[in-house]
Known about the structure:
About 70% of the residues lie in helices and about 0% in strands. It is mainly α. The chain has one domain (about 10-270). The chain is globular.
Amino acid sequence: MDVVPVDDRILPVTRLVAAVVAPILAVAGVLLYLFPAETERLWAWPMDPPMTALAVGGGYLAGAVLFARAARERCWHTIGVVFLAATALSGLLLVATFLHWDRFTHGHVSFWAWLALYLVTPWLLPLLWLRNRRHDPGAPAEGDTVPDPMRLAGGALGAALLTVALAMFVHPPLATGSWPWSLTPLTARTVSAFLAFIGILLLVSLFERRWSALRLHVESATLGLALVAVGAVRARGDFDGPAWAVAAFFMLLGGVLAVLVGGWTVMQRTGGAQRPDGGR
Length: 280
């Protein structure tokens, strides 16, 4: 049996896939975030109201930045988490596609791009993770360990978000009647898939002690949620759900952002910026 060197390198094929995925997500993000009212003409299926397109578009833009940065990283352990979270996201969206096949605009190029992306990524991403993880040294370097209280807080928040996301996905009526803006079963499952992505990024902190393995993903999640917050201001007229749901949404959004920014700030000030890859 060949001995795999524990050199923390990123395999060329992993870097290539990240470089290919990034612009695809960027195009999707631009279409949805800049033209949220034009989804019937531009997207794989019509989304209404525009707030759904803004939320999903913000997620795609953050994902594009994350994969673009991942393609330029030097150490595998700094990007490994995204392949796990993106596997869950792409798998859920593929299932949602087949469950709501009749809702898609089958003759549109965006649909075929969507279908191709989510037919490939649910198996390609975990395969790359399995191949590349053998190069991960595992142990944190000096000054790279996340304090246990922060890991537990992040993990608990991630578990809560993932639980909500899975409940929404399995039973969309839980969300369609109690969400801050109007959702259909398809958009409920789509939003829940992105919520699961963030939940997994946070949940992994229960098992991953290295700040250098979490930092890129914390920054990406922060960007995505900030874009959702800006989108909420743009589409504030779409918030026609129950008053308690609207209040809970903004409280949760602000709370998660506070946890992410607060954790990032603490780690940067306590030496977490000294990453094993030289801080890049």
